[in-house]
Every structure is written in structure tokens, then in C-alpha cells.
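FIELD: query
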Amino acid sequence: MNRTPVSSSNIASIGFDEATSVLEVEFLAGSIYQYFDVPLAYYEGLLTASSVGGYFNTNIKNSFAYSRL
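FIELD: result
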């Protein structure tokens, strides 16, 4: 999955597969997580958020099933 670099103190890049609704998040520490059944609007919100980490913590973390790659 192609990921887009973001400006964040914790997140390096994010990607989204619209066909499967999978959001992929690469953290600066090197770990990569996939979040499942994420609406496109959440990915778009993450891309445009003034605080990527804040948006992630409020709207995605602990809200969707996930898997660590």
C-alpha cells in the first residue's frame, strides 16, 4: 500500500485502500498498523488535520479493529 508522509511527532506516514477500507499507519518508531473498516472520511480527516497525532488518538485509535504488521 502506498503511504503519504505526514508531519507528526509520532506518525511517519499513512495510506488508505478504498477498496477494502483499510487504513495503514506507519509510526516513527518503525511499527506499522492496519486499521479495518475505516470510512474514507477518516483518512481524509487524518491527512488534513492540524494535529495528525491528535486526530488519530481521538478518532481512530481504540475505535477500529487493527493488526500490527
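FIELD: remark
The CA atoms of residues 35 and 66 lie 4 Å apart.
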